Amino acid sequence: MDSIRVVIAGATGRMGQEAVKLVQREENMILAGAVSRSRIGEDVGESVGIGSVGIALTDSLEDALVQSRPDVLVDFTTPEVVYRNTELAIQYGVRPVVGATGLSQGEIHELEAMCWDRGIGGVIAPNFAIGAVLMMNFASRAAKYLPHVEIIEMHHDRKLDAPSGTALKTAELISREREEMKQGQPDEKETLEGARGGYKDGFRVHSVRLPGLVAHQEVLFGGPGQLLTLRHDSMNRESFMPGVKLAAEKVMTLDHLVYGLEKILDE
Ligand code: NAP
């Protein structure tokens, strides 16, 4: 297979920098362009600390798409620009691999329709950590047989939302597999507000925020005489890159857009 030509939007951000390093080190990928708001004109390799790679940062995604004619756009920007970037890529027949979060359901449906019209593949994944996606999958399977469950997610203390998107998604998958059932002692009283965590269809979701943490989650299932614990830890942003690579390869063979990394894991 020919090498996959990749443009990265948000290339100077924390995730974008990892994506630049990924594309540079993978033999089947070529960095075709790098888009950013800052450090325009600078060699992107210099700005991510891997030495010159011969690609200058530009602030125009359209110029990058027109000039470098990539196969794939990897987007790790922000909720404000991700929709427009993805739409633009599809208009140019460039397959989107979207990691930036914040797209609404409506926007995702519109982007799906655009990919259908163009007959091109795309992946939007709120979590590119393959281990986290597997954890959600296993949790959903376990909930069928061990319906008593609690989720504890742990993140760095700069995180704005609680619970995390991954915890919410895990909770939704679990809810699909079990009847709504209030767990614990029916007469339970909280003597400290919030001590039992957030309530989701009868079970509890707890959020821990501390410096030193990155992104971690445990799903605990309890049954008579047994406890099953699923745990996933993202130690750093590199943990997301195998998922990005998988998606960039997969979009080359798809003719439509998929939402969620789990959709391409077993295909
Ligand atoms: P970040 O460090 O703030 O990087 C954001 C990037 O977007 C930077 O390159 C920034 O440019 C650029 N940007 C910001 N506003 C822009 C605008 N108005 N126009 C054009 N470019 C703009 O954020 P991050 O931690 O890398 O996260 C990026 C996104 O990925 C977020 O949505 C985050 O939730 C998501 N994320 C996804 C996953 C996943 O697995 N899918 C994992 C982690 C994070 P400057 O550098 O010039 O400011």
From TrEMBL:
Residues spanning the membrane: none
**Dihydrodipicolinate reductase N-terminal domain residues:** 4-128
PROSITE patterns in the cross-refs: DAPB (PS01298)
| The Dihydrodipicolinate reductase C-terminal domain, residue ranges | 131-265
* InterPro entries linked: DapB_C, DapB_N, DapB_N_CS, DHDPR_bac, NAD(P)-bd_dom_sf
Annotated positions binding NAD(+): 10-15, 99-101, 125-128
**Which residues are the signal sequence here?**
none
Q: Active site annotated at which positions?
A: 155, 159
Q: According to the UniProt entry, what is the EC number of this protein?
A: 1.17.1.8
**What enzyme category does the UniProt record give?**
oxidoreductase
Q: Where does NADP(+) bind?
A: 37
Name the domain of life. Answer: Bacteria
Q: Where is this region: Disordered?
A: 177-196
Q: Which reaction does it catalyse?
A: (S)-2,3,4,5-tetrahydrodipicolinate + NAD(+) + H2O = (2S,4S)-4-hydroxy-2,3,4,5-tetrahydrodipicolinate + NADH + H(+); (S)-2,3,4,5-tetrahydrodipicolinate + NADP(+) + H2O = (2S,4S)-4-hydroxy-2,3,4,5-tetrahydrodipicolinate + NADPH + H(+)
A Pfam family matched in the record? DapB_N
Where (S)-2,3,4,5-tetrahydrodipicolinate binds, per the record, is at: 156, 165-166
Q: Where in the cell is it found?
A: Cytoplasm
Q: Which family does it belong to?
A: Belongs to the DapB family.
| HAMAP family on file | DapB
Q: How does it assemble?
A: Homotetramer.
What does the UniProt function comment say about this protein? Catalyzes the conversion of 4-hydroxy-tetrahydrodipicolinate (HTPA) to tetrahydrodipicolinate.
Q: Cross-referenced NCBIfam families, in alphabetical order?
A: dapB
User: What is the designated name of this protein?
Assistant: 4-hydroxy-tetrahydrodipicolinate reductase
* Gene name of the encoded protein: dapB
